[in-house]
Amino acid sequence: FQYYFGDINLPKDKFLQEKVKEDEGFVPLEVLLTFNRLKELSPDAEVIAAAIKKSDSGLIEVSIDNKKIRRSPEKPLPENTKEHREELTKRTVYCKGFPEDGTFDPIKSFLENYGPVDSLYLRRNGQTFKGSVFVTFKGVPDAEKFLGTETVKYGDKELIKLSKNDYYKKKTEEKRKSKLEKEEAAKAETAKEFQEVRAGAILNLEGFGEGISREDVRNFFEDFAKVSWVDYNPGDPKGQVRFSEENQAQVALDKAKEANGGKLEINGTVLEGRVFEGKIIAYLGD
């Protein structure tokens, strides 16, 4: 109950925020006992009310009829100032290495060996516990003492400990590096799509007529050398064929003419072929 009405949980608990507005801050115990963690303590509201009255923290106040509780008006929530947020951050530690089947109470009890715990947040991926927490200690010295402890083990596993500030700095740096890696990968992928065409690998063609497709051109020259790419749109008078290997344009041209009685003929159309002499940068993407 101290946790639910505490400085950290109450300001961000929308459900409780609505409830405390209804009855001068009082919330019925029967409502609170719908919370699974509280129900596990005891399903009996009278027992809970009696236990709260014995607490010397003074944070929780019980109604006269023992059926409702509220945060004591004498201990209002701290103002949400910059100073308060900074102090809260200094008291908060990121801690990783707990088992994924770990639960709130055992982890909180373990951490309380290192100092009074004000709040504990189990980080989850959906419903699955990620094995890491944010723990807020009662005071900055408690957090600093925990961070300064050389080795902290939960069971047989050593825990990773970082101040909240250091954790977010680390995540920011990881995101920066990840972004750079993605950018470099994108550049490398783009570089693959552009390359200098090997010398003597391009054959310029002229004289196209009707009834010749890009596939017709590719299939025709594939019989003489490996074709990498065909630049031709049906209806255009000119086109190009790029071969995979250096100096294969002349080889393919000679073989094609030899196979067709000295002519370069595709689907009944005689073309003029000339090897492009020089180097160009070609885009190889879609």
UniProtKB/TrEMBL annotation:
Q: What is this protein called?
A: HTH La-type RNA-binding domain-containing protein
Its GO biological process terms?
Answer: positive regulation of translation; tRNA processing
> Which GO molecular function terms does the record list?
mRNA binding
Limits of the HTH La-type RNA-binding domain: 1-79
Naturally occurring in which organism (per UniProt): Lottia gigantea (Giant owl limpet)
What residues does the RRM domain cover? 91-165
| Subcellular localization, as worded in the UniProt entry | Nucleus
Just give the chief location class.
Answer: nucleus
**In this protein, which residues make up the domain named XRRM?**
196-286
